[in-house]
Amino acid sequence: MKNRMDKLLKIQAYFDNELGPAEAREIEQLLVSETEAQRIGDFIRKQRETLRKLDLEHGYSLPIPFEVYWAGIRSRITQPSMIDVISGAILDFVERVRLIRRTVAPVTVIAVCLILCILAGNALTRYRSRVSNTKFEIVALVKDPGVVTYRDWTQGVTLMWFPYPANGE
Fold this sequence. Notes:
It is a single chain. The chain is mainly α. The protein folds into 3 domains: 4-78; 81-128; 130-169, no CATH class. Helix content is 63%, strand content 8%. It has helices at residues 4-15, 21-33, 35-58, 66-78, 82-126, and strands spanning 136-139, 148-152, 157-161. The chain has a 3-stranded antiparallel sheet with strand order 1-2-3, with no helix packed on it.
């Protein structure tokens, strides 16, 4: 036995017929070999006899047989309580949330990176020169805001329009 209280509880359970056959044999050997266990056993026997005498004298008895009464108590002890069931459900929920976080966080990072790449690609293609995609181009971005340049790549022609007369008037 681990300690004195454990020994006391085992001996009491032995007298209440709550132990299995292997544990009952172990306690019987303990009651034979140890004097302290014998004293505890004698004390429990005397208390049980005294209680039986009082019950008989005063007419106290259980409304149901003793074995049925203890079987009900034993089943309630072994049955999981609501707190255990609820705490188990909470632990399952927390574990599922952790699993979701472990999978969603990397997927979210990858999705954000893909979105940024797509946006950057759109921005680069929007401001890229359109020479390769079209047959001609009109450029108006020169130092003189009135000058417009027209280029036709298929014909190899470049024209420039000036809004003012060519002779300097």
